[in-house]
Amino acid sequence: MSFKRWAFLFSIAALATLLLRAFVFEGIYIATASMEPTFPIGAHLFLDKLTLLFREPSRGEIIVFRSPVPPYLDMVKRVIAVPGDIVELKEKKVILNGNPQDEPYAQHTRQEERLKGDDIGPLTVPAGSFFVLGDNRDESDDSSVWRDQGTGEAVYFVPQSQVRGVLRGFYRED
User: Fold this and answer.
1) Less CB within 10 Å around the terminal CB: N or C of the chain?
2) pLDDT tens digit string along 70-102?
3) Is 2 marked active-site?
4) Structural domain includes residue 17
């Protein structure tokens, strides 16, 4: 095969790869302990960008989104409450629409300490927003602790416009 043919085939493959990564799926690396024990530091996952073109994230799904507070990094958290839900945290326990939640995936590494974000609400999730928490609750930068740097007011919700996709079940550790 000629060099021109190889260059053409490589260009087509590169373009297809870029389009798939931009619109369909992307590799994600877990860099912090905020989602332990579900996803340990160093886990590699796939971000499904296609599914959320057809529906909103559901309660319990793990999403990737741009943080609503500086430094505006991509974050991985679990959706706890969707638009219209009433969410409350009482002594580290999630109360959703008046019902205490059984969350076998949640971990509290500082159970005896009272931390900022252990008691909030009740809050009604506005349209087009989500309340999210890390599974490693005491070590997670999430809806329970975010603050606007200018005003110091709590920022409880992730706008749907900042959600990049849903994590899917496959992962491997380094």
Assistant:
1) N
2) 888 899 999 999 999 999 999 999 999 999 999
3) no
4) no
